[in-house]
Fold this sequence. Notes:
Layout: E1 11-12, E2 15-16, E3 34-36, H1 45-60, E4 68-70, H2 92-103, E5 109-110, H3 130-133, H4 137-150, E6 158-159, E7 176-179, E8 186-189, E9 205-209, E10 221-223, E11 229-230, E12 236-239, E13 247-249, H5 256-259, E14 260-263, E15 269-273, E16 277-287, E17 292-298, E18 301-309, E19 313-323, E20 327-331, E21 341-349, E22 354-360, E23 367-370, E24 396-399, E25 413-417, E26 421-425, E27 434-438, E28 467-469
Parallel strand pairs: 3-4, 4-5, 9-10, 27-28
Antiparallel strand pairs: 1-2, 6-7, 7-8, 9-21, 11-12, 12-15, 13-14, 14-21, 15-20, 16-19, 16-21, 17-18, 17-20, 22-25, 23-24, 24-28, 26-27
Helix pairs in contact: 1-2, 2-4
Amino acid sequence: MTSYSGTNPLYRRGRLRIAPGKRSYYDKAYLHLSGCQSGHNGCNRGTCARNAITWILDLYKRNPCKPVVNLEAFYDAGGTTTGLDAKYQGTAKDARQLGYLSWLSGSLGYTYGAYGIWNWQTDSTRGYYWSRAMQYPSSTQMKYMHDFFNGIEWWRLVPAHELIQNQPSTYLQRMVLAKSESGDLAVAYLPDNASVKMDMAAFPLKINFQPAGAPVPGGYLADAGAVYGDRGNGRTYGWSADHSDLTRKRGINADEKLDTLCHFHAGGKWELAVPNGNYSVTVSVGDAGYPSTHTVNVEGTGYWSGLSLGANQFAKLTKVVSVIDGRLTVDQGEAAEKATRVNYVEVAESSGFLVAVDSVSTGKAYSLSTAKGGALYYIDRSYTIGSLSAALNGQPMIRTANDDKYVSASAHLRFSVTQPAIWIPGSPLGGRTAFLIPQPVRLIQPPATAPVRTRLQGARGCGPHGLLLSDSQNIA
């Protein structure tokens, strides 16, 4: 197990050092996890906090990625100081703070220590007698922390401390943030801070179309049909002409997002102010109360054209579009007055060039992910990626189904991309994998031993195994 601490010459300042004549164990297949000891540090709480953040992050970011555990933090002594070295005089707050700092910095585990238990104190006259130590308030704090993370999808969280914009200079007050890749889940820990200011560009913007005064779904901002302008909520958006007369709440569907809508006036359009760039845009259409027909374009990219839906039927689609004029535009083309009815839109920045997964012949829900060491490879297996070249690491990936390897459909997987691309069948991952790279690039010849059985269907199809999408211009 790789760990930090002590005077061993292999370790220095929290980073694994390889002494002459020694061998590195981190990359070995038999090492399944790594760990560090953020430590007691002579009761220097700032150093404890720094170690819990930076050491965990360092191990978390290594390739191949392996689970990280904080093996020893600041022991809690339950307020006892008599006869104890300063390094053991931790408190419930120390245990709690270091636990959250570790967990939100990429740790998969946190070892809580109580003085009187670790050394099994049997002198009942001591304040840290073992049975008293079991009742320290910090043990309750650990239960609270466990229950909190157990109640959310914590495994989707990725450290994102860089998004905090009002970070204190001292590690003792340093805030931490972790978020899901899609930005729909985030957790921040504030040790003693009154507020946290974050770069919200990394989070999806969600707009619900509804009448003024209707309940706003959690996590969404309301659009009540007003003309484009500053909404007073930090965002600028709205319609080309007043649409407030076309907002509806049907009182039928329990999902507030689907129970509300806004019709399009003929020739009308809705816009959102955003910096120029690529965005993943989700649009939902439908009417809880009446049959409807929908046509939607986002930045000129077609979503639906004359799509017919019954009452209380809905359609949702996500594509990646490019904005070059500072406004994301949604319209219904030449559709008639009040034809299209939009429920909500969700907008998130996108660094990749994948537009959308259009169809899978087996009907399985292939999912978008990010290729990196430790990432799950398939949607139906627990296999993970061991390592990737720097050019491919962090790029978008379609997680496919291992059980689909015998599918013989002429176009098993269909997807859309925003620029011309070429295939590299037979990847360093082995198996029947394909990389998709924008032109022009310098290609690497696949290993001769790699089986190449991927069925490629031009620029809009691929074989049934993992697909990596990269915006790198040099895959060497």
